[in-house]
Amino acid sequence: MRYSYGITTALLVGGAAITMLTGYPAGAQVAQNDRITMEGAVPVAGAPGSFADLTEILQPAVVNISTRQTVTIPQAQNPMEQFFNRRRGGGNGPTTREATSLGSGFIVSADGYIVTNNHVVAPGQRAQLEEVTVTLPDGREYEAELVGTDPSSDLAVLKIERSEPFPFVRFGDSNQARVGDWVIAIGNPFGLGGTVTSGIVSAVQRSTGSGRAFDRYIQTDASINRGNSGGPLFDMQGNVIGINNAILSPSGGSVGIGLAIPAEDAEPIVMALINGEEILRGYLGVQIQPVDEDIAEALGIEDGVGELIQGVQPGEAAEEAGLRAGDVVIAVNNEDVTTDNSLSRIVAYIEPGTRVPVRYIRDGETRTVTLTVGRRPSDDELRQQQMFQGDDEDTPPPMEDDRNSQMLEDVLGIQAIEITPRIARQLGVSDSTTGLAILAVNPNSDAARRGLSRGVMILAANGRDISSIADLEAIIGEAQDRGREAVLLRVRARGGATQSIPVRFMD
């Protein structure tokens, strides 16, 4: 079954009737939230005298999450070490080490489904997730199964098992949250275990300015720190209105600006992950930029209305409908594009394959076109789409590519990626172009001194065409075996001529 909708960062690493209402496989248990009214624990209006009753009832459903990961560390590849390794008969294979992470989560059903952030359980760079352990407030530990993840919204679901039912909590209606409402956060900051903090809702629909579909949060001044990630943000009725996700801080610690994923965005994803449903999101295929004062002045339009298209992806919905760079999209599917309701967010909520009207401004004239919304690519595909471009309509956070070659970094001082047809189009060359595209250059390398930079294509080395990182590594290895200290690269800059440049190996 497919489930289609759109959702939204320093990251922080009842009975049967209720079961029918929430959709969770909860059994004949009463949610911790429901006990609050039953036991008279709701504070009176105004400043509560204490959060103790709320905390006592809710805390049993909040858990600590720890992971164990195996990290692969590539062996250093400098020429001298290679020489001595060969003389000793030693290898240059990678080594491994263990890493751990800590976070928070909360149980949403009596049979042990747990919600947390994806970044709490996601393996690190070049890492393999080995084990996830969930610790309840009473100290009992359980090995958890990873049920599903959604990196785009930074959500994940775990499952733990035991014969007796677990205490659990339910999602509330985050749309009802108002600025100034009291909230409490429970979690595992800095690995300290169950910690409770209180504050108010500082803002709703808070955007950090990334322009992504999932860049909309509940902001709170309740203290949230590293390790609170994935923990619940409760309202005064004990409902989960947010999932603590990130903080904005110059120091890395809490300065009173915590961000939580709204329950209205999180709950559909959680249910889809629990039910094993495919998560589909809409996509237009455009690079966008908010309309600021200068853009508005230049185009003679209202400031803060719509988003400017900087580029379109070939073959995607926007290009097929005739949209182009310079157009300002002001509404999609009859929803206005605003600062609080970005184009990315609107489109992400539309089922792929749906035909919708798009209203835009071109040459001072408001026009409308009807297009068929496409399917949002995977995060990896999106990173490749915008590798050498501006912000995509739903660009995932930047991330080191785990296919980078340690040898190229150590010997040439560059990071590179193999040229795909999509990357070739970004670089303005034929889809059939093969080779490598440079992502970054060590400023202390000879490659940097020779003028190599991001976006430069490496097409050949020592007179031989290359189509993969392995090809270039092999050529460099052969040169080192022969005692050479440089390689001749055939390179081409975007819009430039192809030329041969010698690059000396790093010391």
Please provide a written account of the structure:
This protein is an alpha+beta fold. Among the domains are: 282-375, PDZ domain (Pdz3 Domain, Roll); 406-504, PDZ domain (Pdz3 Domain), CATH 2.30.42.10. Helices cover 20% and strands 33% of the residues. The protein is built from 14 helices and 29 strands. Strands 6-5-2-3-4-8-7 form a 7-stranded antiparallel β-sheet. Strand 3 and strand 4 form a beta hairpin. Helix 2 runs antiparallel to helix 3. It starts with a strand and ends with a strand. The model is unreliable at 3-9, 14-21, 76-80 and 396-403 (pLDDT under 50).
Query: At the third CATH level, what is the topology name of the domain at 406-504?
Result: Pdz3 Domain
Question: What is the terminal-to-terminal distance?
Answer: 56 Å
Q: Helical amount among residues, as a percent range?
A: 10-25%
**Mean pLDDT over all positions:** 83
Structural class computed from helices and strand pairing: alpha+beta
- How much of the sequence lies in strands comes to 25-35%
Shape: globular
Rg of Cα set: 26 Å
